[in-house]
Amino acid sequence: MFADIDAVQEEALKSLSTAGDPKAVEAWRIEWLGAKGRLKGMMGSMKDVEPSHRPAFGQRMNALKSALEAAFEDQQHDTLAAGPPLDVSEPGTPTGQGRRHIISRTTAEILDVFARMGFETATGPEVEDEWHNFSALNVPENHPAREAIDNFYLEGGGMLRSQTSTVQIRVLEHKPPPVRIVAAGRVYRPDTHDATHYSMFHQVEGLYVDRGVTMVDLKSTLLGFAHAFFGDEAEVRMRPSYFPFTEPSAEVDMKMRVKGSWQWVELGGCGMVDPNVLTAVGLDPEEWTGFAFGLGVERIAMRKYGIADIRWLFENDARFLRQF
Ligand code: FA5
Asked: Which domain holds residue 8?
């Protein structure tokens, strides 16, 4: 009788070993261990066993059940881990192709134009101290630009930089002139979000410090950029303005084609580096002069690609971003 059970165990395990996928393993479970399975049927034959042999029969049947259940679990685990059978002739599942965000691309294009004009790339931290964001840039202690309502100050000191002009100081602190750099990055201001303002945006800063740098160098650099970026017909206009770190200072407008017609578009600020800034980094303003500019990357990208609302750039709606 026990020899029969041994033979059954062998048969069951052999057939389980040929079940190569989860479906076949489940079919085997139903056949052998299911409510109406073969094991159940064998248990039912207990009544035909001579009473004195029943305990030993029961024990052997329990051992058979345990052996089959353990083998089933192992096989189930192995086939699930192996995954579905691989049909190499099946067509693959296409995956969407990613692309760089329009702001990253525009930034790279701007830096590339300036690189061709001899500007090296520099970087600075987004978490800054007030010295680099204000004091060294000649912004007085009581200046309204420092107010808490206009800046993201951090608990425990420091702030998120509100402009990339901080990199002017970071570079001049370590590198003796002549210095000719551009720096791109994120800046933060608690501005109310609307079609042209966001609380995090990107600027590109330019700085050129050498002997005898003039406004003519500044304007020709910006004009060179405008031609390279927006085309040979683009123009540059400077309107007198005020920034604590430049003197004289100007707003930079560029004339470019917007939806078929030529328009003046304000892109940033610029000016000649204020002597107080040069003094703050230990340079003699009698010997060194320089110009600086800061352009808004979003404004440039929006004009270039005809995007009406800055908020669309940061909603990360793939249907929008995929168009560019
Ligand atoms: C500045 O930030 C000066 N640091 C620029 C500068 C550098 C002047 C060097 C002189 C010398 P302003 O705050 O105007 O300037 O910002 C410059 C540009 O950033 C703006 O012309 C605009 O294009 C962009 N900008 C300003 N605020 C926002 C905002 N909330 N959202 C999107 N772009 C903005």
From this structure: 2-82
Characterize the bridge pairing of strands 289-296 and 120-122.
unpaired
Lining ligand 1 with CB less than 6 A are: 163, 165, 189, 191, 197-198, 201, 203, 243, 246, 249, 266-271, 292-294, 296, 298-299, 310
Is residue 94 situated within a structural domain? no
**Is there a domain that residue 91 lies in?**
no
Has residue 89 been placed in a domain? no
Nearest alpha carbon, ligand 1 atom 21: 268
Q: Is 241 helix (H, G, I), strand (E, B) or coil?
A: strand
Contacts with 250 (C-beta within 8 Å, 6 or more apart), sequence order: 238, 239, 240, 241, 269, 270, 271
Q: Which atom of ligand 1 is nearest to the CA of 249?
A: 10
More confident residue, 58 or 183: 183
Pull the structure tokens for residue 302.
């929006």
pLDDT per position as a tens digit, 86-95 = 778 888 888 8
Distance from the alpha carbon of residue 205 to the mean position of ligand 1, in angstroms: 10
Rounded to whole angstroms, how far apart are CA atoms 289 and 210? 6
- Residue pLDDT, tens place only, 210-253: 999 999 999 999 999 999 998 898 999 999 999 999 999 999 99
Q: Summarize pLDDT for 249-274 with one digit per residue, the tens.
A: 999 999 887 777 888 989 899 999 99
In this structure, the answer to whether residues 78 and 170 fall within a common structural domain is no
End-of-domain residue from the set 82, 110, 138: 82
Identify the pLDDT of residue 210: 98
Q: What is the pTM of this model?
A: 0.74
Residues 106 and 46 both lie in one domain: no
Q: Rounded to the nearest whole angstrom, what is the distance from the C-alpha of residue 268 to the centroid of ligand 1?
A: 5
- Taking the CA of residue 293 as reference, the ligand 1 atom at the shortest distance is 9
